[in-house]
Amino acid sequence: MQWTLVVPLKPLAEAKSRLSDTADDALRPGLALAFAQDTVAAALACHAVRNVAVVTDDALAGRELAALGAGIVADEPGGGLNAALAHAAATVRAAWHAGPVAALNADLPALRTAELARVLERAAAFPRAFLPDAAGVGTTLLTAAATEELRPSFGPGSRARHRARGAVELRLDAVDSVRQDVDTGDDLRAALALGVGPRTAAAAARLLIAEQ
Ligand SMILES: Nc1nc2c(ncn2[C@@H]2O[C@H](COP(=O)(O)OP(=O)(O)OP(=O)(O)O)[C@@H](O)[C@H]2O)c(=O)[nH]1
Ligand SMILES: C=C(OP(=O)(O)O)C(=O)O
Question: Could you tell me what reaction this enzyme catalyses (predicted)?
Fold first, then answer.
């Protein structure tokens, strides 16, 4: 089964505000872009992924991620993350005849292609499914079969909400890279320990230099 992924990304100047104690205003937008580039590059390399649509109004991120091969969908209708994801899922189904659709966070800089493939292959057994984040309270991936609406409910505490709204929680070992979202400095250290993609490695190196 081949999936279309929708990857939401805030304007870079606003993204990853909880990393402000780790990366200052001059470095944080570049770090957020690097996370998204490594996430999207790993997703596009996955054999279970047909295409990737990044949901963003950020012009620089749009250009850089389109250069990797992603499509860009406008952040509409202006009602926040979940409204944007629902709109994007409908858009890619209409425009690309997409079948199964998955929402994947843009802050997974350690994402490994083979681990994403395992998660998507397991998700294909269910009408709707989700993967909890590393912290165990949020969600990094939500899937919907071709006949299902995505019905996203991302945001703080989304694991419980996605379960309550009928998505099946995926229980898989050794898919840490798909679960390791980066919200805080500790999350960034955990992702670096797993091994991040090249753009995040370079951006994190600038961070360490700036800290000296
Ligand atoms: N397109 C779009 N993406 C969003 C929006 N809000 C959050 N996102 C993205 O959704 C994903 C999960 O959000 P968070 O983990 O909270 O990331 P964040 O909002 O950059 O982080 P904080 O500023 O620390 O809350 C990230 O990929 C964000 O870029 C939104 O309103 N529109
Ligand atoms: C948007 C989410 O991420 P976070 O909790 O990292 O903001 C989520 O887990 O649903």
Answer: phosphoenolpyruvate + GTP + H(+) = enolpyruvoyl-2-diphospho-5'-guanosine + diphosphate
